[in-house]
Amino acid sequence: MDIWDELYYKARQVQAPRSISPFIDAGGVAAAILTDKGNIYVGVCIDTACSLGMCAERNAIANMITHGESRITKVVAVMSDGRVGSPCGACRELMMQLDKNSGDIEILLDINTKETVKLGELMPDWWGRDRM
Question: What is the CATH number of domain 3-131?
Fold first, then answer.
């Protein structure tokens, strides 16, 4: 199993769509991130009626930060139908702000072909580059 398959598998393990309350659903999307230290962190989306939810990628990033890390090398986001998807703008922005080398983070676009894109390609004119 290569690292992309492992990340995909770890994300699918926690992906369990469920209702938490009449206002909150969780687990429709799951994500796994690999850090520069070789650790994998996962998260699921939390969708709320008041828009204060959290994407799966940001949930995984929060898990990583909670454990004292801040450098991501790879990201996989798994949609509810099992396909892989690209992180939303808010997730991209948070990843860019983590580290001066965040533009090198690889994002899986297709689990079958292992096609990837670097975060920097998705954020070519990122506003904070000069501040890093």
Answer: 3.40.140.10
